[in-house]
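Any chance you could type out some protein's one-letter sequence along with its backbone structure tokens so I can compare the two?
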Amino acid sequence: MAENRTNSRSSRTTWRTHPAIIGSGVYLTGTGGISGPAEDQLFGYDGLTQDYSARNVDNLNPLLPTYFQFSLKRCPAVTYFCQSVNLPGINATPIPQPTRFVGIPHSPGIPEFDDLNINFVVDENLSNWLEIYNWIRSTVTTKDHTEYENAKEHYSDATLSILNSAMLPKIRISFNNLLPTSLSALEFDSTTTSPDALIASATFRYTTYEITKLS
């Protein structure tokens, strides 16, 4: 009878000191209770600790919509009068693999980029509006084939620089092989009592863009 009590006590002690689920962050203590993650590990998040001061971000300044510079190599007048530009998004619509149940999504392998859109103030000589207009006209034909320029001259590069709070460039987005696809109309109105400068918009397609962090 004494021997049975000794074996039971020995078995109970072994159970108390043996870890329960390895890697789950839950451990059995020597007294039979359940403790939290080892040391200061954050429960449920491998690689993170409970030291919140070590996980603070380096820069708390928000990005404002005025923190940018845009340069279109082929159109210097458009560059000077540019008022707004977007950083296009990217899509990767998955290709579903049919199954008896829920389909399995697979990467399409080819990304889909949103259009690049810009807005610019039109100068009184229409110089910047004509830059885009003549560019588009050089990529199409309306009268004869001589209007169509060399295909290599249909494209241009552009750069979008994102600035920090000190107005210094921190991120550069380089667009490759820009091709204009549309240019907005200009609406004139003699009934306007407080005329504002005319704003034109242009849309571009491109092959890809690269994002580079500057030092």
